[in-house]
Amino acid sequence: MSLLLLDTNILIHGARRSDVWAQIVSLCDPMLALPIPLVHIVSHGESLSFAEQRSWGEERRKQLTYLLGYFEMITIDPLDLDSYALLDSYSRRKGFRMGKNDLWIAAAAHTSGATIVTTDRDFDHLDGKFLQRLWIDPTTP
Q: 3-state SS string over 79-139?
């Protein structure tokens, strides 16, 4: 399997140990994937904010901290800047306004060639043209 870049929602499902997390494990098992999957620094901050906003308890916070420490954290690479501009411009021309965190994740995937693993549809319009994404249906157990 190619290099994986985990979207923020994957981390949330992992910290919750949800049924969707079990589905993610059955499809790509990020805990055993080699090379170790990537987590963008914006997902790191976004997931911590999510936990804080929802007043997560100690157990879920520990699980999130474990996952954030387990996966390889990447930061904004200077090469991502051109990718960000390209993807933002393309998205707007197609009528999509991506969130800034999703744009950074998409730019990193475009630059690195990593496959985004996600449970949302925010990257659909880029899939196959600028990047690859593995969509996990969050409604299917």
A: HHHHHHHHHHHHHHHCCCCCCHHHHHHHHHHHHHCCEEEECCCCCHHHECCCEEEEECCCC
Whether residue 138 has a cis bond before it, omega within 30° of 0: no
C-alpha–C-alpha distance, residues 89 and 49, integer Å: 28
Q: What's the predicted TM-score (pTM) here?
A: 0.95
In the structure encoding, which two tokens stand for residue 16, read together?
């919750």
Closest by CA to 4, choosing from 25, 44, 42, 33, is: 33
Those residues of the chain that have pLDDT short of 50 are none
- 46 touches 101 (CB < 8 A): yes
Rounded Cα distance, 136 and 121, in Å? 10
Encode pLDDT of 110-130 as tens digits.
999 999 999 999 999 999 999
The structural domains of the chain, ordered by start, are 4-135 (3.40.50.1010)
**Measuring CA to CA, which residue among 87, 100, 132, 126 is closest to residue 113?**
132
